Amino acid sequence: MKALEQRAAKALKQLLAQVSAIETMHIECEPTGPDGRVDILAHLNVAGRRHALVCEIKANGQPRHVRTALLELRDHVAQMGDGAMPLLVVPYLSPEAQALCREQGVGFLDLEGNTRLVFDGVFIERLVASKPPAERRDLKSIFKPKSAQVLRVMLRDPQRAWRVAELAAAAEISLGHVSNVRTALRDREWARVEPEGLTIAEPNALLDAWRDAYEPPAGKRLGFYTTLHGGAFEGAARQALASANSSGHALFASFSAAQWLAPYGRTGSQFFYADEAGLDALRKALKLSTTSKGENVIVTLPKDRGLFLDRVQPAPGIICTSPVQTYLDLAAAGERGREAADHLRRERLAWPR
After folding, report:
1. Under 8 Å between Cβ of 63 and 69
2. I need a surface site. Which of 43, 119, 278, 305 has the fewest CB within 10 A?
3. Structural domains in the chain?
């Protein structure tokens, strides 16, 4: 915290120096305030009027931690009386956490460059698009394959409350990994802990963030050609999926899954996820042949086997990726895919906002 306090004090001095109307009289680090807990206290003069900028420094700028800091700042300012103004200083403040500060009328400054300070005719606001590497890593880790298994399970029914042990069993991952995901979701206030267990509080915000950070599953992509169309293809696909899922895994994905979940627009190609056994079943039933061009069946053999756990059966014999996984794949598939994704979300993922 010492190093963070030094960086915070430097950033604050630089910020105040940019406004000619502000005269910085004195900046104290860890002063003894009425409750003895103020991190930085900046004494300012604006047009002959004195103000005290009461700064709370936090190492974590995620919403859950910000709420605690805002309560502490409110107490500091109340005890210091007139002229005291709150300012939260963190390494990085997410847009959701910035919104909390605005709602509470608290200024903020993060070391990435985001700033808002409004008082006595002074208005400073600067927002930057960049995120620190640590924040990008933390956000990506929430959507890595093992963590994604937890998210897919919970988004099937966002209102359901889960105990850690039962969630680990349903997602087929370790208790420790579930606990890590639980902490990350709570810190961002995408989930909350109730007496019955963990429940998704903001499914739309979670899905938005997942979509924006989504990377298509790693794996081998194979292109084939089939002469089957229409009813003949559908009948053969049912046969293939039944055979594949008796010894392995295969399921409709992307545009093909969307046709069964929320039809929007037809595409000339069919898409599947499969393992090796599932691929063999698809080859035989759909009479797939390899081709250097003109492929109309794309089969991806994903490294992430968790994708096969999250499947639905919208019609007898038809096995698809879930609405959430289908939405993510469509959203990453270009302009036409994004349109189909938006339609799917309206039809199958319309959670209350």
Report:
1. no
2. 305
3. 2-126 (3.40.1350.10), 133-213 (1.10.10.10), 219-348 (no CATH)
Residue 35: predicted pLDDT:
52
What burial letters (b/e) apply to 130-158, b meaning 16+ CB within 10 Å? eeeeebeebbeebbeebbbbbbbbbbeeb
- Sign of the Cα pseudo-torsion (281, 284, 295, 317, in order): negative
pLDDT value, residue 33 = 55
Q: Concatenated DSSP letters for 111-154? A: TTS-EEEEETTEEEEE------HHHHHHHHHHTSHHHHHHHHHH
CA distances from 205 to 95, 194, 200 (A): 12, 19, 10
The whole-angstrom separation of Cα 109 and Cα 89 is: 5
> From start to end of the chain, where are the E strands?
22-29, 40-46, 49-57, 84-90, 107-110, 115-119, 122-126, 191-194, 197-200, 219-225, 250-252, 270-274, 289-290, 297-302, 311-315, 318-321
Q: How far is Cα 141 from Cα 187, in angstroms, rounded to an integer? A: 14
Q: Which residues contact 220 (CB under 8 A, 6 or more apart)?
A: 300, 301
Task: Supply the pLDDT for residue 45.
Answer: 87
pTM of the model: 0.82
| Positions in the chain whose pLDDT score sits under 50 | none
